Amino acid sequence: MRIIAHVDMDAFYASVEARHNPALRDRPVVVGADPKDGRGRGVVEAASYAARRYGIRSAMPISRAWKLAEAARRRGEPAVAFVHGNRKLYVEVSERVMAILASAGDAFEEASIDEAYVDFSSLGDFEAACERANALKREIAEREGLTCSVGLGPNKLVAKIASDFKKPDGLTLVRPEDVQAFLDPLGIRVIPGIGPKTEAELNARGIRIVRDLRALERGQLAEWFGRWGEDLHAKARGLSDSPVSNEWEPKSVGEQETFEVNTLDAAFITERVRALAGEVFARVGRQGFRAFRTVTVTVRFAHFRTVTRAHTTREAMTSEAALAAAAVELLQPFLDQRENPRGTKIRLIGVRAEKLLR
Fold first, then answer.
1. Catalytic sites, residue numbers
2. Nearest C-alpha neighbor of 147 from the set 57, 14, 308, 314
3. 289 and 356 in contact (C-beta within 8 Å)?
């Protein structure tokens, strides 16, 4: 019998900030760009649960978050603390949390900076797995002062959905015989891979909850979505045989930056591209890669049109200088008539290293 846990840290960035800054502990916290009294650029990276009660969510424009925070303040609610992110701190805390989880089961898989899977199958039953999960929650709370939510199920799919069921600081157990009853009444967005676009498409066909999705034939879903439709057919039934394994490797490493003010200042944009290339190269090294063969640049204009350009070399690139030079070369046409004939100002740039090599 497989027993899989999905451990999801609660509002990780915001919780880490509050843990390390006592002045933030009793306040709603938003991590992201400077809101500049509603004129700021960029997005919300994370929001504490207190801030979420104001309607603030990750990936929301920071200007919108500020307006929601101000509306709450005028209602007499606690003021929101806007904090610029500290990626280095989050990585350090994550590494310590992952070390706790890595030794807790038969296998371990880090899914992201704030979530992981642990295989508890050798424990033999779900009662023992619940005890182990609660012990892990206590250890993380004692060592790091942070809470997490855990989902326990017969596979990674069910465990991941379950971990989001009772947040924050929750523990949700879904036994094999209860999987369908657990999934059926949930909205289809709980199924990994179903985003806003697919949800809208399915809603238009009268499919709103997992039970509706499960009622469809495999062939119908395949006709609508191709091979992914067959995958949806299995997921609606809570079926997944994906192993817990940390052998997965990232296919690319990238960073991006939204400018405070739209600009076409060539010197400034070039300098920022070089800075992003430096951050990307450092991350490539930290993740154990020695080289890469593809460099990709993303440019988002003021009117939100987004364009990417990539260059792949025969010989592997092994230096920050090579990455920066390739990125700047890809960027240059966006600063003149070649890719930007109307001289539209630029809102965002991104640099990514792909085809990574050990």
1. 115
2. 14
3. yes
d(CA 157, CA 169): 20
Q: Which CATH class is domain 4-11+87-178?
A: alpha beta
258 band by pLDDT with thresholds 50, 70 and 90? confident
How many other β-carbons are positioned within 10 Å of the β-carbon of residue 169? 14
The dihedral of CA 81, 87, 93, 97: what is its sign? positive
Residue 288, SS3?
coil
pLDDT digit string, tens, across residues 230-241: 899 999 999 999
The contacts of residue 94 (CB under 8 Å, 6+ apart) are 12, 113, 114
Please indicate, yes or no, whether the overall pTM of this predicted structure exceeds 0.85.
no
> What are the DSSP E strand ranges found in the chain?
4-9, 29-32, 44-47, 81-83, 107-112, 115-119, 148-153, 171-173, 252-263, 291-301, 306-317, 346-357
CATH number for the domain whose boundaries are 184-235: 1.10.150.20
**Domain spanning 252-357, CATH architecture:** 2-Layer Sandwich (3.30)
Cα separation, 151 vs 172, in Å, equals 5
CA 149 to CA 117: how far, in whole Å? 12
Q: CA angle at residue 167 from 166 to 169, to 5 degrees?
A: 100
CA atoms within 13 A on the CB side of 356: 20
Tokens at 177, concatenated:
């015989």
Torsion of CA 273, 279, 283, 284, to 10 degrees: 40
